[in-house]
Amino acid sequence: MSIKTTENEHNITRYITIEFEVFGRVQGVFFRKYTKAKAEELGLTGWCRNTHRGTVQGEFEYASSAAAENENDSNINTDKESWEALAFQHWLCRVGSPRSRIDDCTFSEKLASTSRKYDAFRVIR
Question: Do β-strands 111-113 and 45-50 pair in parallel, antiparallel, or remain unpaired?
Answer without folding.
Answer: unpaired
